[in-house]
Amino acid sequence: MTPRVLKQGQFLIASLPDALTDSGWRGLRDLLMEQVGKHRSLGAVIDVSGMEVMDSYATRLLEGIARMLSLRGAACVVVGISPGVAFAMTRLGLRLSTADTALDLDDGLELLSRRVREKRPHVR
Amino acid sequence: MTPRVLKQGQFLIASLPDALTDSGWRGLRDLLMEQVGKHRSLGAVIDVSGMEVMDSYATRLLEGIARMLSLRGAACVVVGISPGVAFAMTRLGLRLSTADTALDLDDGLELLSRRVREKRPHVR
Amino acid sequence: MSADRVVVRHEADIISARQSARGLAATLGFSESDLILIATAISEVARNMVEYAHGGEIALRALQEGSRRGLEIVARDEGPGIADLQLAMQDGYSTGHSLGLGLPGARRLMDEFQIDSRLGAGTTVVMRKWVLG
Amino acid sequence: MSADRVVVRHEADIISARQSARGLAATLGFSESDLILIATAISEVARNMVEYAHGGEIALRALQEGSRRGLEIVARDEGPGIADLQLAMQDGYSTGHSLGLGLPGARRLMDEFQIDSRLGAGTTVVMRKWVLG
Ligand SMILES: Nc1ncnc2c1ncn2[C@@H]1O[C@H](COP(=O)(O)OP(=O)(O)O)[C@@H](O)[C@H]1O
Ligand SMILES: Nc1ncnc2c1ncn2[C@@H]1O[C@H](COP(=O)(O)OP(=O)(O)O)[C@@H](O)[C@H]1O
Questions:
Q1: Among residues A55, A66, A44, which one has the least CA distance to residue A93?
Q2: Where are the beta strands (DSSP E) in A1-114?
Q3: DSSP character string of C26-71
Q4: Which residue of B has its CA nearest to A40?
Q5: What's the mean pLDDT in A63-68?
Q6: SS3 at position D104
Q7: Least confident range of B114-118, C5-9, C99-103, D105-109
Q8: Would the CB of D8 count as within 6 Å of ligand 2?
Q9: Using one digit for the tens of pLDDT, what is the confidence trace for B77-94?
Q10: pLDDT (tens digit, 9 = 90+) per residue, B14-63?
């Protein structure tokens, strides 16, 4: 039930479990911040496709992580929000304003590359 | 406790001390604006890694400097926000919207070079 | 199993409550999409119990009204209660550090929603959702 | 040193207050990350004193509750007071030229936050943070 963070080239990929407790979120945040510094990663994809629900609590913490990453110079894309979860989030009145979103991991990595290219044109 | 501004090629590098008073911020702003004009610098990296905290006051002044630089045609990148400071800024509700961010001085200078190349394709 | 009861005291209990509700709702024939709405609503209400009321209890019950089937969720706590219910039901109002969407959002997620609160005595939220015929 | 008192009148005093709090908090066993949160919160409150109340005084005190250790910050001024506390506690509300995140932000940085203000009499902010067990 703890999140995993993998390095893939210049990016990080975090896969979230079905549910995260407060300390799980804190662990994810600290791990991402640490790895971004260590690998000089230019961005992170956070895959929430395994998560049962995205309630207001999870959304707030996810936004916080995206904001922290951006202060360290790294872009952040959230992927894997299913249609059902997206519907529930919308009903709740939630949106992701800091983090970008993409359909899945592939799209997320592509979006990150594009973001980075925008920021640093010659980087592949 | 006064900020230093160094010229490095077409860029300026400002290193902030652990804390800045109002007059220190004003000094930094005036120094940067003066040096940008004098050296025709295309951008500035502001290194805040030495700063103890980035409160709402510091963030507002930093944003103001970035905005003034951009009006003079110079890009601005803030580097060196530590994980702990990024966490506190996020809790406060702060973000940097005008200034770009990068991990450290190296990344910041690289980002500036990209910015400049984007803007003026023929400049080396 | 057509009724269930979950004590919600710690953070991990929020997940248990969610999973119990999801399990019971699934047996009643709710769509996958509705299961997510129900799980999300219960998540919001359960978190409030942990956050603001030192915990409480959530009772789940299958409903049958003619041929209509549904799920009832009763979340009861003996916490401090809510001073101004109208304010608490507004989007964005929170006395904590959070988004203030829990109560108004849960109301939008479910078909029926009632909240009753007495200062010093506690808070009870009753929510119902019906299986789409 | 388990208590400290800092007069905050001029801008430079904000830095002293921050450093005193950081120093005392460090001896209590707060993590580096918590030290930054505490220093940031005190920075916001101290700046308000200088900006809006012609200065005031900040008292720092170590707390012990059973095995739990913490830090208490009491910031008291005899400035003009705050007319509408609810408004002042809202994100983005400022009567100055600033971001209006100081008070609500400080609340989010600390574990406990109380503010009391009387027009014409002054403002007192009490903040506490506990060392994570
Ligand atoms: N069970 C409860 N006991 C006491 N107060 C509650 C309870 N549930 C909600 N509240 C109060 O109502 C406010 C609004 O709740 P909600 O809309 O869920 O937003 P949030 O949980 O983000 O604060 C809370 O901030 C809290 O003050
Ligand atoms: N110590 C104080 N004395 C009088 N007024 C205050 C004090 N602290 C805050 N205020 C009032 O509350 C408002 C909101 O404060 P805050 O959230 O810190 O935002 P900001 O400092 O950016 O204005 C201030 O604009 C000011 O009007």
A1: A55
A2: 4-8, 11-15, 43-47, 75-79, 100-102
A3: HHTT--HHHHHHHHHHHHHHHHHHHHHSS-EEEEEEEEEETTEEEE
A4: B103
A5: 94
A6: helix
A7: B114-118
A8: no
A9: 999 999 999 999 999 999
A10: 999 998 988 899 899 999 999 999 999 999 999 999 999 999 999 999 99
On whether any CB of chain B is under 8 Å from the CB of D121, the answer is: no
Per-residue 3-state assignment (H helix, E strand, C coil) for C99-130: CCCHHHHHHHHCCEEEEEEECCCEEEEEEEEE
The reported pLDDT for the residue numbered A121 is 47
Residues β-bridged to residue B13: B6, B45
Instruction: Report ipTM for this prediction.
Output: 0.78
Model-level pTM? 0.81
Asked if A6 and A45 touch (Cβ cutoff 8 Å), the reply is: no
| Distance from residue A95's CA to the centre of ligand 2 (Å) | 29
Angle at C106 between CA C104 and CA C112, to 5 degrees: 100
Chain C residues with CB under 8 Å of A87 CB are 33, 36-37
C20 ligand 1 Cβ < 6 A: no
Residue B59 in tokens: 């963030």
Q: Transcribe C59-93 into DSSP letters.
A: EEEEEEETTEEEEEEEEEE-SS--S-HHHHTSTT-
Scan for tokens 């902010």, then name that residue. Answer: D125
Q: Is the CB of D122 under 6 A from ligand 2?
A: no
Could you give the C-alpha distances from A26 to A33, B87, C29, D32, in angstroms and in order?
11, 11, 36, 15
Contacts of D89 (CB under 8 A, 6+ apart): D103, D104, D107, D115
Which tokens sit at D23? Answer: 């120093």
Q: Does the distance separating the beta carbons of B103 and A40 come in below 8 Å?
A: yes
Cβ contact (<8 Å) for A92 and C47? no
pLDDT of residue D123: 98
Minimum CA distance residue for ligand 1 atom 9: C48
Compute, in angstroms, the gap from residue D123 CA to the centroid of ligand 2. 10
